[in-house]
Specification:
The complex is a heterodimer of chains A (220) and B (303). Helix content of chain A is 16%, strand content 32%. Chain A contains four helices and twelve strands, in the order E-E-E-E-E-H-E-E-H-E-H-E-E-E-H-E. The chains are: A alpha/beta (220), B alpha/beta (303).
């Protein structure tokens, strides 16, 4: 059932991307789960992936502010102590947890890093073999220090040329990966990236049941 | 038995006795697994979308008493629809329980939720009863299908269909039906995709008219008792799903028995808390979707 959660803070990472932090209310979840967040009148909701770890005392969501986004513009006016209505956690995407001991890798673009942050905050002692992260601008690479500390991260920045980062799309990094045929790949982001990566991996002999997809879509 | 006696339930707007079905048997029991779905199709008759909870996830504890009661009543098959059933975290456990006693059918979009749970679904082939899947491929045209279901999802559903078929599960297709279509021609346009996926050429295709979104009140003809007797034979009347099936729905924390798979947006079709009780209740054909069954012979069943 839906419940009300107290807002702890809104933390801006960039002028477009912010983090909504709410109280936990002792709700259980698994990395990869989402929660539907409702606007004030409860008539509309959008799903957001949980970015916090399973033992964290708070819930974290990474939100990209859309110019006409019903929920993303509603949330930014919330103050600490306000409440926000959210669904129970739900999901089918289980990064790192549905590969039955086989090696695994993460590929994310933009706010699609959220479920992987949740995994690393929950199971940091079992990192992925690779983590590819694609962003438009370097500042969009949120929690970069944490990611670099907890996994073998390769960052692709498409609209800036930054030292020690690939200048281009995350898909450009695929040929540099070393992996075995039993590797599971967890992809999260917009459909164009997921389609390209899936196609490339299947072309390299990875069975489609080893390619786990969480497609983010923008809806106003 | 009547569970409501108000005029609008019993009579049409013009005062004629409303058409009805007096259920004869329980051959098929459906479960609504919840309206939460990974997709957001604009035409969805359930209004399902990510995070939607109009109808809640059904759990094994919710389903078990109905499965057990249905077996006593002679049920032949269990079927599951959503939402997307594999968004429901309890789905594999419910199937594992139900497949001990009867064949099961799951209606699915065969995208990420099923793909990502495939490793847990595959062992169900070893159960004593067969499991089959009906996969939504709205049109025999990937671009048209993807325009409402998301880019790449036609191909993903087709790949999942192929994997299900290769694993030994039964498969069929659900598609949208245009009232003016040539059904044979449209069905034939799926064959190249079946061939591509390694599916049998005679893979069953079930087509549906536009049922409209929940709460819609389209202006369709009302079905009178006279219509049912004049235009339909006894055999045709017996093909109405409400004659031989029921659906279990969980709403606002309560699990109840509904008349069929298409009327869960109208609380008047909640026929009771048990199957035994609901089997006695006369189903009045008042919902606008009842007209689809009357006029087009629409059915969700594969019997």
């Amino acid at each position: 059932m839906d419940d009300l959660y107290e807002v702890k803070k809104i933390r801006w990472h960039t002028p477009e991307i912010y983090e909504l932090v709410t109280e936990r209310n002792d709700i259980p979840f698994a990395p990869g789960d989402s929660m539907a967040i409702f606007a004030g009148d409860g008539s509309q909701s959008r799903p957001y992936s949980i970015a916090s770890g399973i033992d964290d005392p708070v819930l974290r969501f990474i939100v990209r502010k859309m110019p006409d986004g019903v929920i993303s513009t509603y949330l930014i006016d919330l103050k600490p102590g306000d409440t926000v209505r959210m669904s129970t956690p739900f999901g089918w995407f289980r990064p790192g947890l549905s590969s039955a001991g086989a090696p695994f890798a993460f590929v994310a673009t933009g706010t699609g890093i959220a479920p992987f942050l949740s995994y690393l905050r929950s199971y940091g002692e079992k990192p992925p073999a690779h983590c590819l992260f694609g962003v438009r601008h370097h500042q969009d690479a949120i929690e970069l220090d944490f990611l670099q500390e907890h996994c073998e991260l390769k960052l692709a920045v498409s609209r800036e040329n930054i030292n020690e980062c690939h200048h281009g799309r995350v898909t450009d990094l695929l040929p540099s990966l070393q992996f075995t045929n039993d590797t599971h790949f967890y992809l999260c982001g917009l459909d164009a990236m997921i389609d390209r990566v899936s196609e490339w991996l299947e072309g390299k002999g990875i069975d489609f049941t080893q390619i786990h997809r969480e497609v983010f879509f923008y809806a106003p | 038995m009547l569970h409501r006696e108000d005029e609008s339930w019993l009579y049409t707007a013009t005062g004629d006795s409303r058409g009805y079905i007096q259920p004869e048997c329980l051959q098929e029991l459906w479960f609504h697994t919840g309206t939460n779905c990974n997709l957001r199709c604009p035409f969805c008759l359930e209004g399902s979308k990510p995070g939607d909870d109009r109808l809640a996830f059904i759990t094994l504890d919710d389903a078990r008493p109905f499965i057990d009661e249905a077996l006593i009543l002679g049920v032949e098959k269990f079927s599951f629809t959503g939402g997307e059933p594999f968004v429901n975290p309890h789905m594999v456990g419910i199937l594992d329980y139900a497949l001990d006693d009867r064949p099961c059918l799951v209606l699915t979009n065969a995208t990420e939720p099923l793909q990502n749970r495939f490793a847990k679904v595959r062992p169900l082939i070893e159960k004593p009863n067969p499991l089959s899947f009906r996969v939504s491929l709205d049109y025999p045209d990937p671009e048209k299908h993807d325009s409402s279901r998301g880019k790449g999802n036609f191909r993903l559903s087709l790949r999942t269909l192929s994997a299900l078929n290769n694993a030994g599960f039964g498969v069929s297709i659900a598609r949208l039906r245009d009232i003016n279509e040539n059904t044979e021609t449209v069905d034939g346009q799926y064959r190249p995709y079946f061939e591509e996926a390694g599916l049998p050429a005679d893979t069953r295709i079930v087509s549906f008219p536009d049922f409209m979104t929940p709460g819609s009140l389209p202006d369709v003809p009302q079905i009178t008792e006279n219509c049912m007797k004049t235009y339909l034979t006894a055999e045709q009347r017996s093909e109405f799903m409400c004659n031989f099936s029921k659906m279990i729905v969980k709403r606002n924390g309560r699990t109840g028995v509904y008349a069929c798979t298409l009327v869960d947006d109208d609380g008047d079709y909640d026929l009771g808390a048990t199957l035994t009780e609901s089997m006695k209740v006369r189903v009045m054909l008042r919902h606008h979707r009842c007209y689809s069954c009357f006029a087009y012979g629409a059915t969700c069943s594969e019997r």
